[in-house]
């Protein structure tokens, strides 16, 4: 029998027992949908957490020292560390503003556009970053977080780009609005050019609160951090022994690797739990096919008498089993993605990832590998759990089959 004949016979046999076939397919649908939903959703959560840290998070090195670092220190480090794509410093400050008898705490960050771009700290929802001219001129411009709109202007839907806000007796032009990192009703963050913060809020003190380097693609982050400590010690006049206690380097790479490892392990565990549903579905396939063999003994005898070989009988019942599983796999894959999107929507609306330092929409990870996994599992289940009934049917004695009532 050719493939077309096998498929046609399989469809006819399944149509003869529609109720039983649908219930058996349902078991496969539940199993495949569970695996797809868990795999896609956990993959989406992992991507959300990693992306919340910034696209370059694994290549960022945070540099600090026991004594003061300024822009000259950063420039000297850039000159001797070609392993970095960029090295940028930040100036931090703090102020308060009273609005309608309410005190608002404002955390202030001063840095260059390149710093904001490489860290991904600013996710603009309106407006723009600072221009080159504004940075060079230490212009009084700022970017505020979205939750600050209501605090400063009373209306959370107000259009604030182009308006000014008064801080410490000076007016600052708002050029952009970013997503709120930690939404609050009495605390907000504001971002300024570096020179503006040093001049207006830090009274000209050139101390940099933080220095961050972006390691070039392909470089060993750990080796670069070790080299950074050595080179910075020379720049700042520390001895080799002092350097280990006075200079600190930290990278998110190890944290991201740990996060990926944890999420992958969690994904495997959940996939294994969901796989139990597939096992139950596979047992249902075997049970149905054994029942089919018992009910169709006389049909098997007639086919053998007409010249069908054991191989033909095996192929016929395996095709029926595979048809059940592939149908269930297709429906289960669609259902699994639908469930994953539904759960992701609920998780996003509840902002479940905010406690992990990130927020935003969770998008299920729909990859070709996931689809191939579903197809492979469907076909595999059909062949594995359908093989025993198929071989049992093929080994029946044709004469005994014809005598069967």
UniProtKB/TrEMBL annotation:
Transmembrane segments: 21-42, 268-290, 321-346, 366-388
Domain ABC3 transporter permease C-terminal: 272-398
Protein name: ABC3 transporter permease protein domain-containing protein
Lineage start: Bacteria, Bacillati, Actinomycetota, Coriobacteriia, Coriobacteriales
Molecular function GO terms recorded: transmembrane transporter activity
Organism: Collinsella tanakaei YIT 12063
InterPro entries assigned: ABC3_permease_C (IPR003838), MacB_PCD (IPR025857), Macrolide_Exporter_MacB (IPR050250)
All copies of domain MacB-like periplasmic core, residue ranges: 21-227
Family indicated by similarity: Belongs to the ABC-4 integral membrane protein family.
Keywords attached to this entry: Cell membrane, Membrane, Transmembrane, Transmembrane helix
Membrane topology value: Multi-pass membrane protein
